[in-house]
Structure formats: structure tokens, C-alpha cells
Amino acid sequence: MTGYAKVSKNLNGNLYTVEIKSVNHKFINISFLIPYLFSAFEQRALPLIQSKVKRGNISIRADIRGEFESDLIVPDLELAKSYFKAFKEIEKEIGVQLRLDLGQLLEIKDIFKMSLDAQKEEQIWNDFSQILSEALENYDKSRKIEGEKLKSYFEDQINELEEIVKEMESYESENREKYKEMLLQSLHDNFSEIKMDPERIEQEVVMTIQRSDIGEEISRIFAHISRSKELMNSDQDVGSELDFVFQEIGREVNTLSVKSKIPQVLNLVIRAKTIVKKLREQVQNIE
Q1: Strand residue runs (E) in the chain
Q2: Cβ within 8 Å of residue 82, ≥6 positions away
Q3: d(CA 262, CA 260)
Q4: pLDDT at 5 over 60
Q5: Which one, of 123, 134, 122, lies nearest residue 20 by Cα?
Q6: DSSP summary character for residue 30
Q7: Is the pLDDT of residue 210 over 60?
Q8: Looking at residues 41-49, what average pLDDT do you find?
Q9: Whole-angstrom Cα distance, residue 119 to residue 132?
């Protein structure tokens, strides 16, 4: 489900900013961006994020600035001395003065390092986790607002689908008679010259018509509609099951399109397919 939240707050001399965005996805995908110095926070933050989010492409951007930065960069003096000593040995060996100056020395990798003592890092984590929790709460509220809109949309579509299926049901007898008429006409056109037992023919026709009756599909669709309404009123994560229910409705509607023999039912099937397609697209937004 799509959602958005941004929290920016000063705590203990530091400015914390957390921005959360999400777009629809069948599974959960989390992208967590934070300054390299605090990269260890990602693993500590994931359980907190996953407790609030079950599905979707989640993008979280975090930034931390403040007083700690004034003492953040420290030189590795021992490493610098080693580099300087090595240069002097090279000069002595080749007999050429390399003229190493301070600027060249500063360009050497790892001469300067970012370092934060464990106590300070833990304090920053505690403050950051507080801001992250607040951002997740706001993000959850934004999704609930969208969720209410989606629920209303689903209810309208499901109710319309239910009315369409009820109308299909009213044509069940007429569709069956039409199929019988078409079958008997086909038998007459193709096997009229062959002597066959009329009673046997009637039995086969009845069995074939029963297999082609649309009543079973309609009954199953009603059952699926009833289940979808139950799920819509559940407090649990129902996205995956709703997706399955709509998929099953789609399968039954496809079968009806094959069994439908009168224009009225065929037109209703087309309308039902359109609704099911919309439902299956939008159900990806639900956890």
C-alpha cells in the first residue's frame, strides 16, 4: 500500500530526519539509506520496520547531523608515520628526493578516519530509533487513510459484481434451454441419418446439459463474494487471501464465458470480467 511520512526533529544537540515512502508490491522490499557512519543501524532498524510493514516497496531515507560531527574525524598518526617512513626509505634506495609534502600525505587513503565512541553511538541510536518509530506511526496513519478509501472502493465493486451474478442467475434456466436447443440441433444436423435410441439420446443430452449448467459457477462466485466481504471487515492482514479469492472469482467467470449461450449472460460476463480485473489490480495495495 502506498504511504508517506517525514519527521525531522532535534534531540540532544543532533538533528534527525527520517522520510518514508512506499509503493505497491506483492512482497516486501525495503531500501534503507543512511550515512555510512551509521550503517550498522540498518540491521537494528529492520525488525522495527517489519513490525509495521508487511508488503510493498519501502524506501527509507535517514540523515543525522549535529554536535558529534565536530570530533568525528581523527587522524591515524601511526599509519601516517609509516607512510612517511616508507617514502624516506624509497628516497634513500633510489637516491632521489621525492619532496613529499603534507598535501600529498593527506591524499593517502585511510590517513583520516571517522570514529564514534560506543557510548555516543548508542545514545544516537536511541534517539534515532525514537524518530524512526514516530515516522513509522505517521506512515501507518497515512496508509490507514488510504485503506479506508480502498475498502469503500472494494465494497462498491463487490456489490456491483454481486448484482451482476444475481442477474446471471435469473437467466440460468433460459441459458440451459438454449444449450439444449443448440445441442439437439447439432445432433439432428450431423447424425440424422444414423439410427439411434431416442431414450439414450435424451439421457446423453440431459447429462451434457448438466455438465454445462452455469448454476455451479454462480453458487461458487456467491460463496467467494461472501468470503471477500468477511475479509474486508477483518483486522488481520488479508491482502494475499483476498487476491486468491478474486483470482478464483475470475476463474469461475472465465468458465461462465464458455458455458454462456445467450447474449444476456455473455454481456454480464464481460461486465463481471472488467470488475474482477479492477479488483485484482487494486488488491495489490492491501497487506
Answers
A1: 3-11, 14-23, 28-33, 56-66, 73-75, 112-114
A2: none
A3: 6
A4: yes
A5: 134
A6: E
A7: no
A8: 94
A9: 20
